[in-house]
Amino acid sequence: MERVLGVSGRVAELLDGVSLEMTGKDVPRLQEARAAMDGGTRINVTYLAGEDPGMRLAAARAVRECGFVPVPHLSARRLPSSAELERFLAGLAEEGAVENVFVVGGDPARPEGPYEDALSVIRGGLLQRYGVRHVGICGYPEGHPAIGDDTLWSALTDKAAALEAAGLAGDVITQFGFDADAVLTWLEDLRGRGVHLPVRVGVPGPAGVRRLLGYATRFGVGTGATVARKYGLSLTNLMGTAGPDRFLDDLAGGYEPARHGAVKLHFYTFGGLRPTAEWITRYRQGRG
Fold first, then answer.
1. How far is it, in rounded angstroms, from Cα 188 to Cα 109?
2. CA 153, CA 160: separation in Å to the nearest integer?
3. Cβ burial, residue 98 (10 Å; 0-12/13-18/19+)
4. For the segment 27-41, what is each residue's pLDDT rounded down to a tens digit?
C-alpha cells in the first residue's frame, strides 16, 4: 500500500506544471484547447523552417493573451544574422513574450548566419539585453542520430555553465522517447556531471502509432520490440493509437528526487493540443 501511495505522489509531482508545444499554425487549435489547460501553462512555440517570424510572434501573442506563458524557440543555425535575432527579440518584447525562450542548435548542417550552435546565442549577450530571463536548452536521453554522446554531454554542460555565468535561469527539455528506464539513467548521469537545472522530460502526447513511429524515426528515438511493447505501441497495428500512460507510470515508479533532481513533464502534441490537454486531465484524475 505504501508503494502505491508513493508512486501516486510522484505522479502528482511530475504532473505539477506540465508544459506543451505548438507551432505557429496552431493558434486556432490553441483556442480550442484553452478550456482544458491550466492557467499559466508554459507553451513552447517551435521554430519551423516553413514559418516566418511574423507567424511565431503572432503565436507567442496568442499564448500570452490566452493566459499562458509563451516560450518561443530560437534556432541558432537558422538565424541569418544577429540583426535578425535582435528584430525577433524586439518583437517578442513588444508582445510581452520575451522573458522565456528555448534555444536549440537547429537542423541545417551549415549555419545560415553567425551562430554555430545554441551556446553561441547564449554567450552573445543579446538575450539579456532584450529582457530574456529564462532559457531552455536541449537534452537527449537516447542520444542524437548525428551527434556523438561525448559531444552532446560537452554541449549540455557548457550551456548550463554559460547560463549560470550570464545570470540566466534555465531548464533542460529532453527529446521525447518511449523508454522510461533510459530517461532515469540519463537523469542520474546528468546530475553526476554537475548539471542541476530542472529537467522537463519530453513525452509524446496521445497520437496514432504510425505518426509516433514516424517522428521516432526522424529524431532517432529507439523503437525496438521490447521498448515498443513496454510502452504500448503495436508494431503490427499501425492504425491504432497510443498514449504515454505506461511510460509515465514507469517514470513515476522509478523517480527519486534525491537522485534525479527536479523533474517536470513537457508534452509534444503530435496528436493535437486539445487531445493532449484532455488526456493530461484524465490521466491526472485517474492517478489522483
1. 31
2. 11
3. buried
4. 999 999 999 999 999
